[in-house]
Every structure is written in structure tokens, then in C-alpha cells.
Amino acid sequence: MSAESGLKTFRDADGLWEGHDVMEVASPEGWYSNQDLVLDFYNQRRRQLLKVDPNQGHLLLAQLEQRFEVDIVTQNVDDLHERAGSSSVLHLHGELFKVRSTKDESLVQEWKSDLNSGDTCELGSQLRPDIVWFGEAVPKLDKGAELTSKADLIIIIGTSMQVYPAAGLIHYARPGIPIYFIDPRPSIRASDFSNLTIIQDTAVGGMQELVKQI
């Protein structure tokens, strides 16, 4: 979804995210092995996010709120949906502009500058990125499943459909509702689900076509 804004995903190059093995920068093991590397990695991602803008795909999704009730469930950790004007965004994998306590994960705060060793929460514990890493629970998954189960129409945009448990949300869709899958290299087939329409295009091009169709 955010690739056309200039942000890379870790699926772009065989599990590498900006040249790093994702397990080095997106796992508890990576954090305990090299905390400074992890902090530097997310500092760079935070700085990059401050320099990019929502693309037309984000804007078209936000504009759908003029006609529909729209809930966005995203694996992306950027804030481009919010900046585009979407009012209901559920971040399954956390948010880049937030950090949390390593002692009490409920202690979360906004953070748009660099996060360094020695930056602590009110309990005196080191702060870490508020990102759900591999091997960690996805606390908002139940809410994502609830939203999916209530939807009258589902749009899937630019996901590999390989990252679980998020990829399993499609199975919560009510039988027979329209499902649109926008991706330049779709990983599922029209025959995999009833009423599935595949739009083989980028997020921007696919959203332009989808708006015409609905």
C-alpha cells in the first residue's frame, strides 16, 4: 500500500527490509542480540516516514468514507492512512511513531524523533519501538477479525498473503460477500474464494479501477 509513497516492505527482496535480515531488526532475538542496531534501524525508518506523503491509493481509500463506512485493517506501521484522512485505522503490527515500555507494554507514547539507548519509560525501563515483531502476539488481531466478519465488502491491497496470522483474516469474511484483491503479482486466485475479483495492478492503479467498479 505504501510502496508508491517510497516506503519499502520486508517482502520486497526475499525477506530483506532495507537491506537487513528481518529477524535481525524485527524479532525479540534481534533486540536482545543487538539493541543499538534495532534502534538505529527504526530511527532511520522514522526519519524516512517524515519525508514521504500519502499516495493516491491512500487518498482514494479515505474518499470512500464519503459513501461508505470504511474500516482499514493494516499490517503497515506507517501513518499514511491517517494523513490521507482515513478515520478508522487498525494497525495490527504496531506504529512507527509510537514507542512502548519494555517492562509494561501498555505504557505507549507518541515518538517521532530518534529513540536511543537510555530513553526510558516512567518506570525507568528502556523504551522500544511499538512494533509487533516476529514471534510476538498480535494483540489487535481479534478486533481485526471482528471487523472482517462484519464487512459487507472487503478490499485487500498489496499484501503477500504470507504473513500469518494477519493473512488468515480473509477466512472471517461472511460467505458470498464481494472481495477485491489488488496486487501487481496476486498470490491468490479468483477460484480460491467465492465472489473474489482480482485487480492485477499497483495500489494506486488498482484503487482507481476499483472506485469505478463500486
Write the layout of secondary structure elements.
Blueprint: E1 16-17, E2 20-21, H1 22-25, H2 28-33, H3 35-49, H4 56-63, E3 72-74, H5 80-84, E4 89-91, E5 94-101, E6 108-110, E7 127-131, H6 141-150, E8 154-157, E9 179-182, E10 196-199, H7 203-213
Parallel strand pairs: 3-4, 8-9, 9-10
Antiparallel strand pairs: 1-2, 5-6, 5-7
Helix pairs in contact: 4-7
Folded structure, characterized:
It contains 7 helices and 10 strands. It has one domain: Rossmann fold (3-Layer(aba) Sandwich). β3 (72-74), α5 and β4 (89-91) form a beta-alpha-beta unit. A 3-stranded antiparallel beta sheet has the order 6-5-7, covered by helices on one side. It has helices at residues 22-25, 28-33, 35-49, 56-63, 80-84, 141-150, 203-213, and strands at residues 16-17, 20-21, 72-74, 89-91, 94-101, 108-110, 127-131, 154-157, 179-182, 196-199. With 214 residues, the protein is an alpha/beta fold.
Summed up:
The chain is α/β, with parallel strands linked by helices and 214 residues long. The chain has helices spanning 22-25, 28-33, 35-49, 56-63, 80-84, 141-150, 203-213; strands at residues 16-17, 20-21, 72-74, 89-91, 94-101, 108-110, 127-131, 154-157, 179-182, 196-199. Strand 5 (94-101) and strand 6 form a beta hairpin.
